[in-house]
């Protein structure tokens, strides 16, 4: 999946977050990465987020998974769509779909949602707050795109689905296996399966809202504040009217807030941990038997590679030439000297083979063990 026909520089300059783009079969050889039956199997699992959307005339109905296996055997297949989130966390071949999009920073990547629809199936006209690449896996889907929407756009009276009440298409395409459509945030779009066995892969990219950032950042700050940290006005002077909140008081009060909110170093650490927090933290990826340094060293010396967990999020922030902070699954790791090279490599690639110098480094080995034991890295240690 890594061979990919897309001029990324032109795309980022002319299309990213600006306008839709249809790309006909950017992969030299397309192969659908997951079978419909396997997708249905995932929708039956407790810790996998799934939905079933059915349309009857102008009426839309949503069911939340997990589903019993027999549910799929009795479905009225007319205009029916199964949606399964984060399939890349469970199927390596689906996770490989993300690789061509690594020109977009890791922290922006959300997941790969996979849909399976019968003839006429879809989720209705809507808009998203994030960028999405829609890759046709099997069958055909007719995509329409319209104008820009926002929170003031009128929606249908449906508590479960945010569907547009008024959708007017400005462009329309029929996508076949391997074709891809990019849709920027806010652009209305509607996809309808043409024929049965229609599978679509939605590669989504997160975009935190200002309110989300402020809210969660403030919550983090509050956790470390004490009730003794209070307003003070030593040197208070008499004022003409006791009802006035004086400019000096406003300045002090405002500074009490902004001094904390404007702490860039604290914000960096918080955001790195926040943005790398697993999408589904209840899923436990830790190994049954914790790894020890010497066993790891022997395994890596034999050439066994390390693999990132597809469900894990890796990113880093450079603090100086000889220091960086590595963020993995909501945890932070201070990296200096020999651990810096490893941290950069594991953020850039899904699989790395450790060189001899790093294998001899106790600091690198301790970092790898910590990541392995929290379920963020894996390796075929049975081959050691």
From TrEMBL:
SUPFAM superfamilies (UniProt xref):
Clavaminate synthase-like
This entry's Gene Ontology molecular function terms read: 2-oxoglutarate-dependent dioxygenase activity; metal ion binding
Q: Which residues form the JmjC domain?
A: 93-222
Question: What cofactor requirement does the entry state?
Answer: Fe(2+)
Q: Does the keyword Metal-binding apply?
A: yes
Instruction: Tell me yes or no: is Iron among this UniProt entry's keywords.
Output: yes
Question: Which keywords belong to this entry?
Answer: Dioxygenase, Iron, Metal-binding, Oxidoreductase
Extent of the signal sequence: none
What transmembrane ranges does the database entry give? none
The record's annotation in PANTHER family points to: MINA53 MYC INDUCED NUCLEAR ANTIGEN, RIBOSOMAL OXYGENASE 1
This one is known as Cupin domain-containing protein
């Amino acid at each position: 999946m890594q061979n990919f026909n897309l001029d990324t520089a032109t795309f980022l300059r002319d299309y990213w977050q600006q306008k839709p783009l249809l790309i006909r079969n950017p992969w030299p050889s397309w192969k659908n990465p997951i079978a419909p039956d396997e997708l249905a199997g995932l929708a039956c699992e407790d810790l996998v987020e799934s939905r079933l959307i059915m349309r009857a005339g102008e009426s839309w109905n949503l069911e939340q998974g997990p589903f019993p296996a027999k549910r799929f055997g009795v479905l009225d297949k007319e205009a029916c769509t199964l949606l399964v989130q984060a399939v890349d966390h469970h199927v390596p071949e689906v996770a490989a779909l993300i690789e061509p999009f690594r020109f977009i920073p890791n922290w922006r990547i959300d997941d790969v949602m996979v849909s399976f629809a019968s003839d006429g199936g879809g989720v209705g006209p809507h808009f998203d707050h994030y960028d999405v690449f829609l890759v046709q896996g099997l069958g055909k889907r007719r995509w329409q795109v319209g104008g820009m929407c926002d929170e003031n756009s009128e929606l249908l009276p449906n508590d479960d689905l945010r569907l547009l009440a008024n959708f007017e298409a400005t462009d329309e395409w029929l996508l076949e296996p391997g074709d891809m459509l990019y849709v920027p945030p806010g652009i209305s779009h509607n996809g309808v399966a043409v024929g049965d066995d229609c599978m679509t892969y939605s590669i989504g990219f997160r975009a935190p809202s200002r309110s989300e950032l402020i809210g969660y950042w403030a919550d983090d700050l509050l956790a470390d504040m004490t009730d003794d940290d209070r307003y003070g006005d030593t040197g208070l002077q008499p004022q003409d009217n006791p009802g006035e909140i004086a400019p000096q008081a406003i300045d002090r009060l405002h500074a009490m807030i902004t001094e904390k909110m404007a702490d860039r170093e604290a914000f960096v650490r918080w955001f790195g941990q926040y943005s790398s927090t697993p999408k589904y933290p209840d899923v436990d990826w830790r190994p049954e038997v914790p790894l020890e340094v010497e066993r790891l060293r022997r395994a890596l010396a034999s050439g066994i590679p390390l693999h990132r967990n597809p469900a894990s999020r890796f990113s880093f922030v450079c603090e100086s030439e000889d220091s960086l902070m590595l963020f993995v699954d909501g945890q932070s790791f201070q990296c200096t000297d020999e651990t810096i090279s490893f941290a950069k490599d594991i953020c850039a690639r899904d699989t790395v083979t450790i060189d001899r110098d790093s294998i001899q480094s106790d600091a690198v080995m301790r970092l790898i063990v910590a990541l392995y034991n929290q379920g963020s890295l894996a390796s075929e240690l049975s081959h050691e």
